[in-house]
Design brief:
Elements (H helix, E strand, L loop, with lengths): L2 H15 L14 H11 L1 H25 L9 H6 L12 H5 L2 H16 L3 H4 L5 H19 L4 H29 L11 H27 L3 E11 L8 H17 L10 E11 L2 H33 L6 H11 L2 H13 L1 H13 L3 H7 L1 H31 L1
Antiparallel strand pairs: 1-2
């Protein structure tokens, strides 16, 4: 079969494959909705994850209206605070710390931790287990998770993520146990208390173990970086005709040179070829990337804790006069204050932890660290500056009110 016949057959096959009703799998369908629907049906995990994201967004929308209608905290009605142990209150009461906390903690972990106390009566049956003991135990779990997170097996790394998630859940349980033992149901940070420093050290150890586990894994399985290089060359139209045809063309060229006057040959058309090379990342690059990620994680934790403390002093403190109470509520209900609270909910250190753990679970850790480093730094720095300016403005309003 000659070359022209082969080409005709190839053209006929292409015409058949590009007909009006192509026969191809659903996942190759051109319409995005069809492919997305097939993906949700084929993988129930994606469906559950999508439903979980929808749940978080609905609860965030509900939280916005709750903030807009929130009144001043009642510091005198201790009986009402004590009776709240009989049921779960996600939005009531609604202090500043609960507003600025991570959405998964607010809507999932904290309600489950409160259920352990309200339904199972944890502190009644286990009064000898203190909040600090629970903190020590989830520090131990953080150290164990390093072994799994640094494994080359994806299954073992997913086990490490589950262990770390349980550690984060215990971090909510120790707060519930502390409030139950102290008979103080206010959801706030008790600065200066010994338990506060134990909780801070355990959080720092947990974040360090998570990042060290990623670092050890990258040292074992170094990520690959693709580098594209261009090569310039010349092609001949007879290259696809086979070796015998090339020989015939060379003989014809020799005959033409003997029978015709010498002329300057024109160069064949040039082509540009892109060659993709896969290069392993150096250990220095891996270390510096995780170092900057750790620095961003640390700054997010420090500024979140600092801003929560400042807003608690300004907006959740006991108002001395009715004018001060009115000013507190007007600032709390303002759209700018709510926007700052919402941004910190998704930029705090605990949210970064969950983002990183999700990337580990789907085996996209290095891609997450590399592709989010620029936008994350920009969002963090911008939010810090905006929050500092807002806190200074709110302080100046309270100072002018007290001086008047």
């Amino acid at each position: 079969m000659d070359t022209n016949t082969k080409r005709k057959l190839i053209v006929d096959v292409r015409k058949l494959s590009n007909g009006a009703c192509p026969s191809r799998p659903v996942y190759q369908h051109g319409h995005f909705c069809v492919r997305a629907f097939h993906l949700l049906l084929s993988y129930p995990g994606y469906t559950l994850f999508l439903c979980f994201l929808i749940y978080l967004q609905i609860m965030d929308l509900k939280l916005y209206f709750k903030i807009r209608s929130r009144e001043s905290l009642d510091f005198s009605n201790t009986k009402a605070l004590t009776n709240q142990t009989s049921s779960i209150h996600i939005f009531d009461p609604l202090p500043v710390k609960k507003i600025m906390v991570e959405p998964i903690i607010h809507y999932v972990r904290s309600p489950l931790a409160e259920q352990i106390e309200t339904k199972l009566y944890f502190t009644y049956y286990f009064p000898f287990i203190s909040a600090n003991a629970i903190s020590y135990f989830h520090c131990f779990l953080s150290l164990i998770s390093v072994k799994f997170l640094s494994s080359e097996s994806l299954f073992r790394r997913r086990i490490g993520v589950c262990i770390f998630q349980f550690r984060t859940f215990l971090d909510c349980v120790d707060g519930v146990v502390f409030r139950a033992h102290s008979h103080n149901k206010r959801y706030k940070s008790y600065y200066g208390d010994f338990g506060y420093y134990v909780d801070v050290v355990s959080d720092i150890l947990g974040g360090t173990c998570l990042i060290v586990g990623c670092l050890l894994y990258f040292y074992k399985q170094r990520p690959v970086r693709s580098v594209s290089t261009r090569s310039y060359g010349y092609t001949s139209s007879s290259a696809s005709e086979g070796g015998s045809e090339e020989t015939d063309m060379m003989i014809l060229n020799l005959d033409d040179e003997q029978s015709s006057p010498r002329m300057q040959p024109s160069p064949p058309p040039s082509t540009t070829n892109e060659i993709t090379n896969h290069i392993l990342e150096t250990k220095q690059t891996i270390f510096m990337s995780l170092l900057f990620f750790s620095l961003r994680y640390l700054l997010a934790a420090m500024f979140w804790d600092r801003n929560v403390r400042s807003y608690e002093e300004l907006l959740d403190s006991r108002a001395e006069t009715s004018q001060q109470q009115t000013l507190q509520l007007s600032i709390l209900h303002s759209p700018l204050t709510i926007l700052i609270f919402y941004i910190w909910r998704y930029l705090c250190a605990l949210s970064i932890q969950d983002y990183l753990q999700f990337a580990i679970f789907i085996d996209r850790t290095w891609e997450f660290i590399q592709k989010t480093k620029t936008i994350s730094w920009f969002c963090l720095i911008t939010t810090v500056i905006l929050t500092e300016l807002h806190i200074d403005q709110v302080r100046s309003l309270f100072v002018s009110l007290s001086n008047s």
